[in-house]
Amino acid sequence: MVTTPEIPAAARAKYEPVIGLEVHVQLLTATKIFCSCSTRFGNPPNTNVCPVCLGLPGALPVLNRQAVEFAVLAAMALNCRINETSIFARKNYFYPDLPKGYQISQYDKPLAEFGWIEIPTSGSAKKIGITRLHLEEDAGKSLHEGFADSADKTAIDLNRSGVPLIEIVSEPDIASPDEAYEYLTRLKEIILYTGVSDCNMEEGSLRCDANVSVRPRGQKELGTKTEIKNVNSFRFIRDALEYEIDRQAGVLESGGKITQETRLYNANEGKTYSMRSKEEAHDYRYFPDPDLLPLVVDEQSLAEIRRTLPELPEARRKRMVADYGITDYDAQVLTATKTLADEFESAAKAAKNPKRVANLVQSELMGRLRAKGLEIEHSPISMKGVAMSADLVESGAISGKMLKDLYDLCFDRNLDFPSIYEKEKPQQITDSSAIEKIIDEVIAANPKQAEQYRAGKKTVAGFFVGQVMKASKGQANPQLVNELLAKKLDS
Fold first, then answer.
1. Final residue of a domain: which of 272, 301, 330?
2. Does residue 189 form part of some domain?
3. In this structure, what is the dihedral angle of CA atoms 75, 80, 86, 89, given to the nearest 10 degrees?
4. Domain tally for the chain?
5. SS3 state at 116
6. Are residues 382 and 463 in the same domain?
7. What's the CATH code of the domain at 436?
8. Residues 97, 75 contacting (CB under 8 angstroms)
9. Are residues 398 and 356 part of one domain?
10. Are 194 and 338 in the same domain?
């Protein structure tokens, strides 16, 4: 829960936030950006290292071609202009987990620039600009816990040192914490569709730093910004921004000045705390790395990479609405991941009614997956099974109640729908005479409710439908039940 400083609403309304986000995305390569060490997560500390990523004297970096191709693919998906020539630079600073004393990154000549992402806002859409997308290497990791003899010790794990990253820097176009959340959601979605990263925040594959300032509404000049680092979920980033915006507004209202600094967010307390003063670009003493040639991505290479660019989420939503007659909301839900969208399209193409497939995925399948804490990839019911179940309901072979029961059995037994259906073989009763017999018995057993219906209380019909379905063990055709029941009660 976010805890915001106590400032009057009128005072808060006097200020507007300006937000920019810096997102680091680990590329899904097997080896590091400048050496052949593994990028595998979770290996014992300091086992995925060599003279290059340890920064030993005389070791020379060699650029990973796949890292470049992945970075270019991501830049294309984010509508960036790819620069034919970009330069690797040394970003100089001291930190215990930075073995060389500098980080190889890109500065004034990045790989890509001038991109954008479109996010939904109230009733419309808004473009958030992307200033730059550049390649760089990751640093190592400081470990402050796990020592039995002292709480003051720190260990260094350099397995991450040299892991390939892209840094995606937004323009300060984001005007609220909610817009920041939407931007990050869309960015992650696009990156996942390209396949260049798994975006696993728990493993550090996607990390975000937020820059935020406030200024009096209508003022053109930007306020003094603070940077919020090391936030490990989009929800916490939104909460941290809400707190920080109110904190800065409170400082200004009391006559104080904002300090340019880096702050950490404590999710348990819902507050940000000062970590250190914020460096300026000149503090890093950037200069071109003498061990690396300029990176040249020519037109032929761009064309080859562009051919691997998949259909992206927004374009896919529009096409699916047109192809399958589903709603915009359906398309939004069904394209949440590329796997889900692929699975749905496979089922929709095989089914008689794609809209019914969409409804079943959302109402029956996704609800059960959420209850079990499962992702779509681990669903016992395949999309082929969803398509089969949709066709059975469409043809009247099974009722909606039967389908729910069969889905429950699929999840209980961890078996796909075709297998469960073949074992259970429920048959819907479509014989009018058989259903009439059940209706007669139900009416006879409930004379009081029958009199209420005939006295004008038509809502009692729902009671009778439920009793008939119960007596038929859910096998009576619901449409026939409603038709025959109305005739019997009205006669």
1. 301
2. yes
3. -70
4. 3
5. strand
6. no
7. 1.10.10.410
8. no
9. yes
10. no
The DSSP string of 156-220 is: EE-TTTT-EEEEEEE-S-B-SHHHHHHHHHHHHHHHHHHTS----GGGTSEEEEEEEEEEETT--
Q: Using CA atoms, how far apart are residues 29 and 22, in angstroms rounded to an integer?
A: 21
Distance CA 389, CA 418 (A): 8
Nearest to 426 by CA among 408, 439, 440: 408
Q: What is the DSSP string of 391-434?
A: HHHHHTSS-HHHHHHHHHHHHHHT--HHHHHHHH----B--HHH
d(CA 98, CA 259) in angstroms, rounded, equals 27
Task: Give the structural domain span for 382.
Answer: 313-424
Assess contact for 245 and 214: CB atoms under 8 A: yes
Contact 368, 361 (CB under 8 A): no
Same domain, 136 and 256: yes
Kindly report, residue by residue over 58-77, the tens digit of the pLDDT.
999 999 999 999 999 999 99
Same domain, 441 and 390: no
* Cα–Cα distance list, 330 to 185, 322, 352, 361 (Å): 18, 12, 17, 10
Strands 261-266 and 226-231: parallel
Q: Quick check: 427 and 448 in contact, CB under 8 A?
A: no
Task: Write the CA distances from 349 to 175, 291, 323, 353, 391, integer angstroms.
Answer: 41, 53, 10, 9, 12
From the list 348, 351, 332, 437, the residue with the least C-alpha distance to 392 is 351
Would you state the structure tokens that stand for residue 423, as one six-digit string? 């074992």
CB neighbour class for 452 (10 Å; exposed up to 12, middle 13-18, buried from 19): middle
**Do 73 and 167 have their domain in common?**
yes
Question: Are both 410 and 460 inside the same structural domain?
Answer: no
Of 383, 406, 424, the domain-final residue: 424
Collapse the DSSP code of 74 into the 3-class scheme (helix H, G, I; strand E, B; otherwise coil) and give the result: helix
* Ranges of residues in the chain whose predicted pLDDT is under 70: 1-8, 146-151, 278-279, 281, 427-431, 473
Contacts of 426 (CB under 8 A, 6+ apart): 398, 402, 405, 406, 474, 475
Integer Cα distance of 255 and 277 in angstroms: 21
User: According to the model, what pLDDT value does residue 364 have?
Assistant: 93
Residue 307 counted as domain residue: no
Question: Which pLDDT does position 408 carry in this prediction?
Answer: 95
Q: For the residues of 267-285, what is the DSSP string, one character each?
A: TTTTEEEEEEEPPPGGGG-
Considering the domain boundaries, does residue 1 fall inside one?
no
Is residue 4 a part of any domain in this protein?
A: no
- DSSP annotation of 82: E
In this structure, the answer to whether residues 287 and 354 fall within a common structural domain is no
pTM of the shown model: 0.82
